[in-house]
Amino acid sequence: MNDSTNKIIKVSKTNKNKPTFTAHDMTITAVLLSIILISQLFKTTNQFITGPMVNTCIILAVLSSGMLSGLILSIIAPVTSFIITASPIMAAVPIIIPFIMIGNVILAVSVWLFTRGHDTKARELIGFGIGSAVKASFMAIFISYLILPLLMPAPMQSKIISNGITMLQTSQTMFSLFQLITALIGSAYAFILWIPLKKVLKENK
Description:
The protein has 205 residues and is mainly alpha-helical. 81% of the residues lie in helices and 2% in strands.
C-alpha cells in the first residue's frame, strides 16, 4: 500500500470521526436560544419585536452552525413562546403550535439549501426571501384559513377587537401577512449581522 493510499484512508477516518454538531455549535445554539427567550418576554408588547428576532436567530443558527441548530430553534421557539407568554389564540387552539414549528423549519431548510457550500450574499438573499415567502404561505393556508376558522371557539371568532374587525380576522392577519413581514425583517437583520459574525467565526476556527 503506497503513501497516497494511506493518506486517503487517514483522511477518510478523520472525517468519519469528526462530529457534525460540535460543542462550539451547541454553544452558539444556546446563545441564540437565550436571545429568543429574552425577546419572547416582549411578545405581549409587540409581535414585531419577538417575530423578527426569532427568525433572525433561526437564520443565524443555520448559517453559523448548520441545519441541526436551525431545526432545534425552530422546534423549541414555539414551545417556549407558549410557556412564557401564551397568546389567547395559542391557548384556545394549541394545535397550531406544530404548524408554527413547521413554518420555522421551512425557513431554516430554505436558508440551508441556498447557502450550503456557496454562502454568497446573493444566495443568502434568495434563501431568505424564498424561505420567508414559503413560511408565510404555509402558515396562512394551514393556520389562518383552515385551523382557526374550524377550531377557534365561535364566541372568540366573533369577538370584536376594534372598528368592527373580529378576532378571527385579526388572527388570520397575524398568521399570514404579519408572518411574511416579520420573516422579512428578521432576514434583513440576519443579513446585516452575518457580515461581521461570519468574519469573527472564521477567525476563531
